[in-house]
Fold this sequence. Notes:
alpha+beta, six-stranded mixed beta sheet, transcription, FHA_dom
Amino acid sequence: MHTLTGPCFIGRRSDNDIPINNVQASRRHAVLMQLGDDWWINDLGSRNGVIVNGMRLSCARKLRNGDEIRIANQRLTFCNSAQSAPHHSSIMGKTTELAYQTVSDGPLSAVTCELLIVTEHGEILEGDKAAHWFFGKTLERAPGAQHYFLPPAVRQWLHQLADNNENIFPPLEMEQEGQRIVLSLARCKEDRFYLLGRVESLMFSIARLQSLGLTEREAEVMHWVCEGKNNPEIAQILDVTLHTVNRHNEHIFKKLAVDNRHKAIKAVKERLGV
């Protein structure tokens, strides 16, 4: 039994919260993180993937009571006593229970999350690929240096965290190249800062899509259409059936006066001035 009280890292390295001693597990394989009152699981770019209820994750997914997670040879079950378990086929094998006591019935939102491990001075020890995705050319690297450094504004925020004696760690929010980036401190261990980064497209945000006359759920579906996700992937992200996604697409197309997703994306870009 592992009770979730904060971000939970899973992987082959011994300093993960749930270490998996198997060559099929990546060093940093996956993370479970809390957003609001909900818990999500995200693959951290592992080679062999994360399987939830028999399906490989292609993006972050909200967890529900009874969800079965497979990473390498390890089977995990997410338990939330406040929720009823969904119906799905069982996965046989040794189970570790991940228990959390709070549940929210609020709407799902678009989530992408990546892990960065850095020093107090902003040197990136793990997560170069994610850092380049977040910050692009604003990353700094001295000639001959082994690692990149975070942009100055992020390093300044890190210094403030290091000097904070009240254990209050406000996230850093910044906008860059049409995206909103939110960095939060997951933990600090042995002078290493574990940062969780979330990114949201400002061009296709839920609020902007709703301004086109879409409902909140239609806007969520359209957001992921604009992000290049296909219908089965969107169904997995929003934890709904493929039929439900198809029905939302029909309503979206009707409201945008188009007959396919490519024309819908073009219509959205034109109306939002993207």
